[in-house]
Design goal:
- With about 325 residues, the protein is mostly helical.
- It is built from eleven helices and six strands.
- Helix 5 (about 105-135) packs across helix 6 (about 135-140) and helix 8 runs antiparallel to helix 9 (about 215-245).
- It has a single domain (about 1-10, about 20-295), classed as Up-down Bundle (Rhopdopsin 7-helix transmembrane proteins), CATH 1.20.1070.10.
- It has a two-stranded antiparallel ribbon with strand order 1-2. Strands 3-4 form a two-stranded antiparallel sheet.
- About 35% of the residues are buried.
- Pfam families: 7tm_1.
- Belongs to the G-protein coupled receptor 1 family. Mas subfamily.
- Its main location: membrane.
Length: about 325
């Protein structure tokens, strides 16, 4: 069953309670997933936004939670509107025209947030990999506000791309095909970069001359990437397939539910990783999140210099003699 397809006419000809009655249970399950995911992402947003000092990686996590929560909210409102107009019939005549108009944007909004999650996960993975492979260079040369700049660029680029897809899909199948090709190229590049970054990071930590254990934040990021490939990527593949061959962007039940699970699973990952100690789960949600996100950026597994000893780089003084210049730790 397709939740929305512009090739059909149910969104313009559907009357009160005449169809889709057999899918009420399915929609209710989707709503439960949405509510569960929004609560989880809301807790993460409150914790990262108000209860701890941000570091370069929590800025990405904060934006990722915003994308996931927004995806779930859009889907929740869509299902609520559908049940309202097709099953419950409450406020049908006043709400139905608005619902018919907005329903066309639902697939594009969902795909926008999925692509944004892909970009943010790629940014997290890439920067995390660089911090492991080149720790001293990373601390001395990384721009202070790089995380915020990269997140803003990702939001703007994906938003511009989805607006162009929306416009092209209205112009005809030819333009939708071109948009699909560009989107596939964009997704493949980000996916490969994300995959290579995580593999190189794990190899560097586990297979180097000095084997080091993965920190909790490393584990959480790797699990986020794995679940995105399992749950989020099918949604993008199906969306680009529809654009490529039909010129439309649709939301189907299987890939849609997988996308909902992808947006809901990250808070669970943070809690399980943060609360797991000696193969036993213990601690409150706040304590678990603190263990994951308050890992010191300068840690033994990243930094060859002992904690508390500032790293130095040599700069030429006025007389040509070398003088120490401190590389301040990242905030």
């Amino acid at each position: 069953m397709i939740l929305y397809d512009p090739r059909t006419k149910w969104d313009t000809e559907n009357s009160c309670g005449d169809s889709f009655d057999g899918y009420v249970v399915f929609f209710l399950v989707c709503m439960v997933i949405c509510v569960f995911g929004m609560v989880g992402n809301g807790i993460v947003l409150c914790f990262l936004g108000f209860q701890m000092k941000r570091n370069p990686f929590t800025v990405y996590i904060l934006n990722l939670s915003v994308a996931d929560c927004s995806m779930l909210l859009v889907y929740f409102l869509f299902i609520l509107g559908f049940l309202n107009t097709s099953i419950i019939c409450y406020g049908l005549y006043s709400f139905l025209p608005f619902f018919r108009k907005c329903i066309h944007t639902v697939p594009f909004l969902c795909h926008f947030f999925v692509l944004s999650s892909l970009g943010l996960l790629t940014a997290i993975s890439t920067e995390r990999s660089v911090s492991v492979i080149f720790p001293i260079w990373y601390r001395c040369h990384r721009p202070k506000h790089l995380s915020g700049i990269v997140s803003g660029v990702l939001w703007a680029s994906v938003g511009s791309f989805m607006v162009s897809i929306y416009i092209c899909s209205r112009l005809g199948q030819r333009y939708g095909t071109v948009s699909a090709i560009v989107g596939i190229f964009y997704s493949v590049i980000l996916s490969l970069l994300m995959l290579i970054s995580n593999v190189s990071m794990v190899i560097r930590l586990r297979c180097g001359s000095q084997r080091r254990s993965l920190g909790k934040l490393y584990v959480a990021v790797v699990l986020n990437v794995i679940f995105f490939f399992a749950f989020g990527m099918p949604f993008s593949i199906k969306a680009f397939h529809d654009l490529l061959y039909d010129g439309f962007l649709v939301v189907e039940n299987v890939t849609g539910v997988l996308a909902l699970l992808n947006s809901s699973i990250n808070p669970v990952i943070y809690f399980l990783v943060g609360s797991c100690r000696q193969c036993r789960f213990q601690g409150s949600i706040k304590v678990a999140l603190r263990r994951v996100f308050e890992e010191k950026v300068r840690s033994k597994e990243e930094n060859p210099v002992p904690e508390g000893i500032p790293m130095e780089r040599t700069a030429q003084g006025p007389a040509g003699q070398g003088r120490p210049e401190l590389c301040s730790p990242l905030q």
